[in-house]
Amino acid sequence: MHKGIMLKDKVAVVTGSGRGIGRDIALEMAAQGAKVVVNDIGASVTGEGNDPSPGQQVVDEIKAMGGQAALSTDSVSDWNAANRIIQCALDNFGRIDIVVNNAGILRDRMFFAMSPEEWKAVIDVHLNGSFYVSRAAAPHFKSQQSGAYVHMTSTSGLIGNLGQANYAAAKLGIVGLSRTIAGDMKRYNVRSNCISPFAWSRMIGSIPTDTPEQQARVAKLQKLSTAQIAPMAAFLASDAAAEVTAQIFAVRGNEIFLMSQPRPIRGMHTAEGWTPETIAERVLPAMKPNFYPLETSNIVFSWDPV
Length: 306
Description:
It is a single chain. It is built from ten helices and eight strands. It is an alpha/beta fold. The protein has one domain: NAD(P)-binding Rossmann-like Domain (Rossmann fold), CATH 3.40.50. Strands 3-2-1-4-5-6-7-8 form an eight-stranded mixed β-sheet, sandwiched between helices.
């Protein structure tokens, strides 16, 4: 593995880093000189079970390449446990500089059949977990006047997807969280950005493949390595990204995209105020050409990744 210096002397916490994208981010950050807390409860894609061995294997890999790492098996979805994740960095390495909120689970179900438990489980890990771990690190970032957050969002939330109301809501919520962190922490030289990753992982592996369209989409994703996400995470965590905050980057194979964020695209005004009738008569025909179609991610990103 290449040895870099982009993150020399920095301490990073990477949640959900026993496998997949998180593992590659942890390894990349270690290769760039960071000391890494590998956090993973060792659960299945749906969040069941706890096996410390995946996280321990990543710790061992980092140490084998001459890096420094420590294992945390606490859950991001609990406030006290999330604080222990950050404390693990302080106990082992004396500081915290980087938080990567990568931990996640899936409970896919069509909206009309989704249970409250399936909704809450996904919100707890993705959205609440991102808040808890970020919040636990915030006082340390504030007092040292530096720090970087990297959060994982998804085109499921940014664009849309079927059967993922829980996941999409959590992932779009993370965008709002990241933007507000960026604003609230700007005066303390703390940055917050999102990555929307495309990669073949255990999580994507649970996408249904019942139709030819789904099979084609999964075949396309299978070409994408989780390792292709890691360089962007390492860059955003580094001092080279000192001017980068409140942004959303999508990484797809060897492609990097800056994603749009909601802004007004068309406006209309009337001196006398609107009625339902005048909205139907005047606003609808004027704005309809600018409506966003109901699309899923694979329609917007329709070309093969390069």
